[in-house]
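REVIEWER CHECKLIST
Item 1: Sequence provided? yes
Item 2: Single chain? yes
Item 3: Sequence as submitted:
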Amino acid sequence: TEKLEYLFAEKIQKATNFERKRVGFIVHHDELPEANIQGLGSALSEKYDVEIYLNPIANKSFTLQPSDLDSLKRFDALIVAKPTLPFSDMDKLVLDQYIMNGGKMMMAVETVDAEMDSIFRSGKIVAFPRDLKLNDFLFNYGVRIHPAVIKDMNGAQIVLADGETAGNTSYNYYNWPYFELGIKGEENPITSSIDPVLFQFANPIELLKNPNIKQTVLLSSSEQSSLKPALNYIQLNEVEIENPEEYKMGKIPMAVLLEGNFNSAYASRYERKEFPNFKPKTTDGKMIVISDGDVLKNALWRGIPMQLGENKFSVRPDNPDGKPKTYANQTFIMNAMDYLLGDSDFLALRNRKLEIPLLSETTVLQEKSTWQMINLLVPTAIIGLLAGIGFWIRKKRYS
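Item 4: Structure as written out by the authors:
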């Protein structure tokens, strides 16, 4: 019942909203392919007009140009979903001016190349650093993503073969420390009532001092976390936690909200001459940085896109039709987009919870007999009193 108000309001808004806000996907750095972004795109399209921005690919420049800025301005928000190729200087300059012109951004980027499918094929991989050339861009907004992978003792479960009995392979669930579960960080409407969000090989985010920008940690790892630097092996046998005392780094930020008065990184650089109407600042900037592109990625099962947040590796091979464990990735992304685009009223409705006070079992046991007697005697006494009053009235009237 606590969600009925939100559902009614959502349906009314969909029926009456004729000026839907627009969300664009940047795709010319080999971001997530269409099959792996289908879940997110479908969820967003329920509320927003969603479009893939193809100009850099269509004109074969494979980089944003100053002429792209006017086209990008039609989007209220841009999403960068797991790029694998570096950003050019012009890419960053155009995105900088997009933000200075009031655009909002969500960036889900990784600094280490590590994929679960590769680990299953060989049993181990080397986690290579991935330089997207975004350090200077993110530094301007008070963020640094380090080239390391977070290990969390409380990671999501995956299924692994653990032996063979009578010719049949047996399987078991193991906590995989590289599937970090993002839990609520600082208090914010985006994550006020969020369930855990599934990350895969997330990187640590460092927050840098910037007096103009309010930094809010949306999601972090658990207290029992550690780091593995890039250029080290990641192996399946790490499901066996041999040294729990190593996991003492505390909560590590994995998703951060940045908001406030953003200043352009190019305000005093010669590149500003590329834009006749260069803007050096914006007063209502909003950006969300996530240190894992897989938060936005839906897996494929037998070639069919799964729901966003479903853990493909929690499905048992001996029960392939069983339901996978599902996490709150879709709720998190929709909350985040609503916040970026100013839908705070709907965000509050979605997060509203009906508080039902719990009975004290001790008090119930102690007072059980008393209340049983009250419930038995009080109604009987009331009925007797009413009957007596009725008898007295009849006697007085007809005497």
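Item 5: Key structural point noted by reviewer: The chain has two domains: 4-351, 363-399.
Item 6: Recommendation: ____
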